[in-house]
């Protein structure tokens, strides 16, 4: 759903840029509270994983494909504020290095793909957890539904933005029907990927999943006929899997997905591209400012072998994203530590 340059007029793009900048500023402050020495490395990995999986377009209808947006996945794993930053880092890397998503439309893309998906999915996720049994399985179920809802929500958001600042004269009703219809199907794929990933992390390190915090019920024992709380465990439930092992496994998985599996992804246009072509809303689309980038269109320039070119581009993308994301989140973690340090008054 990466919006290219030319779909949305300059004033509307500027307004969404202001909205995105404000949301990022709020998220930077909020992420300080969410991140600690355990989750800061995971946040950088989540950004890299989202980048990798977004390269895996899957078919959803005749001549149409979809890919992960990632807002729900990131929000559940590392928290909503950090999630906005994760997806924004991915979108920035894609726009600057790979010519995917317009640079003048960066505010539109962050608003739509980072903010809307995160806010909607996390609200649905928390609402479901409030009524579901307090079990880990409930986290996976809520993850599925939250991700499913987040994708058509992003389609609705794009339609509203297009209604305000679209550069072509196309019936908004037709755009809305087509966008929501195809993105409901894409949402199913998003939901499956999100639920499987969240379930896999919960299985080995539930203590690292932001959305699973506070769900563990205190074990109660019957002593002399009365129920009493059992002592809290002194070690993490899944201490058998270290954070380093989880991080390395996640990084290797991301590299394999982007560097190898992506070659087999669907070549069909994604939901927005298909709707834009069919309904004519791409008539004013402009060439990307980074169209001549060495990595444009997810291929390495001057390498003729498509498999090698795409694989190298994917590996580079994962590497750059994990470095950029980790740098941001470690800086926020260090800032939180500095803010929490007592001030030496010299007394």
TrEMBL record:
Residue stretches in coiled coil: none
Keyword set, alphabetical order: Cell membrane, Membrane, Transmembrane, Transmembrane helix, Transport
A GO BP annotation: transition metal ion transport
Pfam families for the chain: CbiM, PDGLE
Gene3D superfamilies, A to Z: 1.10.1760.20
Subcellular location: Cell membrane
Top-rank taxon: Bacteria
Domain PDGLE: 244-334
UniProt protein name: Cobalt/nickel transport system permease protein
